[in-house]
Amino acid sequence: MTRLRPLLDALRQRLADLAELALGDRASDRVVPPTGHTVWLTVLSAAAMAFLAVFALALTQATGRLADAWAEDLAQSMTIRLAAPAAEADAQQAAVLAILAETPGVASARALTPAEQAALLEPWLGPDLPLDRLPLPRLIDLVGGEDLDVEGLRLRLAGEVPGAVLDDHTDWRAPLVAAADRLRMLGWLALVLIAGVMGAVVSLAAQAALAANAEVIRVLRLIGARDFYVARAFTRRVTLRALAGAAGGTVLGMIAVTLLPSEPATGGFLTYLGFSGAGWLAPILVPLFAGLAAFLATRRAALRALARFE
Amino acid sequence: MDCTGFPLRAERGGAAKGMAIVIDLRAAGYSYGGSAGALSGIDLSLPAGSFHFLTGPSGAGKTTLLKLCYGELKPSEGQVALFGKDSRMLSRDGLALVRQRIGVVHQDCRFLDHLTLAENLALPLLVAGRDPARETESLSQLMSWVGLSHRATAYPPALSGGERQRAALARAVIMDPDVIIADEPTGNVDWEMSQRLLTLLGELNRLGKTVLLATHDLALIRAAKPLVQARVLRLADGRVQAAGTEL
Ligand SMILES: Nc1ncnc2c1ncn2[C@@H]1O[C@H](COP(=O)(O)OP(=O)(O)O)[C@@H](O)[C@H]1O
Ligand SMILES: [Mg+2]
């Protein structure tokens, strides 16, 4: 308990310092003279970075949803290809449908009619093809439920109707899901880069402000200011600017994301680029994060600059 | 000039009162890194409530010695104790607290030019975490003490040399410090004004404050004789020689 006391006191001091930083007072703010161009450097870069961050966030969320959607849709729909001599085709097709009828978890199963098959092939082979003369496999569309044992079905088909091949679309789904995952990684990488650039720019702006105010820092130290006081005068200002800039950029970014074309007609990916549900909360974190980054970058720069003055 | 007595008479228990020596230099030296050391082997003890003149030709190291006394410089040899604490052992926050007890009138005054005179005078309160808005009374009394009430809203660059020096003195004492260190406070002012500054410093000394005043102006020291009981220290060849009460 006695050993905890200094720790608690230090913690309380830290908290008081933080509260003071957040609230501050106008008189203390006046201590550091306003410095023209670094103001705009900080505000504009924070706004631009927040704007980009909103898009990167939208990208990561969209790719996540897209991958989920692909995985879900395609897992449910499967195809059975039945290659059999023309004479046995009808019998084998009936056998497959019979197996499916007694397999638990099969929501629906239906053989495609020759007309439907023709419609599927038409874009590739043209309208006048004599399909009935081609040795086309029969196709059976089936929709599986959650409890469908795909491997069991595959084995049973192989045993009882060797010409029937169950295709659950894994082969071409895998690269799609991999691509979505990679896009999501890119989104995260973009977020990290944006955070890094933001930190660097704010750091530079803070260093410029500190260098321009070396004499102010010297005077403040000489009249008895603690390092914390001097650092606070700078960090508070830069943090508030970054916060304001990032808030503006975030709002613009969210408006822009909302205004993206959203009709399904424009194609798969764009439809997903946006936020949904709790995802709308993520962009709100952008200004907070920008403020935190600005606070840490400025404080580091300020304490470093202060070390040059006794 | 509207003049009143020194307003900050709040008698504090005064750590400095119980302490015989407030600033103590033992074989202290400082070198700017050049060939010859600026100062070396300085022994100097300032008892609480004493008044010392520090004199010597320009370039003798007066400013350097004063900087050792308020911790802007740390001794490169020997020791400097401020209120009993080795200045080299002080943390940065500890040094800040020591400075709140030492009022300094810098040779070049050092104001923040973007703040008004009143704001500059309040600055030591502000950085010490006190609310100047609650101490407007003592602030205005202090400004009237140095005869600058009418200049409260002026910016430092607009002040005359004498006004700057008096403002610097007011800022140095706003925290009611135990020690006042003044570096050539009469450097840019006419004779009458330097007499006035001396009178103010004498008044502070009679209130129990320790005063260390550097000047190359021997006439000033002679003129101070009837005003204060002071000892004179002469700085030459990087060493301090006591010149006693006479020159
Ligand atoms: N910042 C500095 N860097 C290098 N040398 C300095 C610096 N300040 C003072 N000096 C040198 O130290 C010596 C003492 O200077 P100073 O203490 O200002 O003397 P005084 O105040 O008595 O005129 C001088 O030779 C001066 O040139
Ligand atoms: Mg000097």
TrEMBL record, chain A:
Coiled-coil regions, chain positions: none
Single GO biological process annotation from the record: cell division
Protein origin, superkingdom: Bacteria
GO CC entries: cell division site; membrane
Record keywords: Cell cycle, Cell division, Membrane, Transmembrane, Transmembrane helix
Transmembrane regions: 39-59, 186-210, 242-260, 280-298
PANTHER family assigned to the protein according to its UniProt record, in alphabetical order: CELL DIVISION PROTEIN FTSX
Identification of the protein by name: Cell division transport system permease protein
TrEMBL record, chain B:
Coiled-coil boundaries: none
Any one Pfam family match given in the protein's UniProt record, by short name: ABC_tran
Example GO molecular function: ATP hydrolysis activity
Protein's name in the database: Cell division transport system ATP-binding protein
GO terms, biological process: cell division
Cited PROSITE patterns: ABC_TRANSPORTER_1, ABC_TRANSPORTER_2
InterPro entries associated with the record: AAA+_ATPase, ABC_transporter-like_ATP-bd, ABC_transporter-like_CS, ABC_transpr_LolD-like, P-loop_NTPase
This protein's GO CC annotations: plasma membrane
Taxon lineage: Bacteria, Pseudomonadati, Pseudomonadota, Alphaproteobacteria, Rhodobacterales
SMART domains in the cross-refs: AAA
Keyword Nucleotide-binding appears in the UniProt entry: yes
Residue ranges occupied by any ABC transporter domain in the UniProt entry: 23-247
Highest taxon listed in the record's lineage: Bacteria
UniProt keyword annotations, A-Z: ATP-binding, Cell cycle, Cell division, Nucleotide-binding
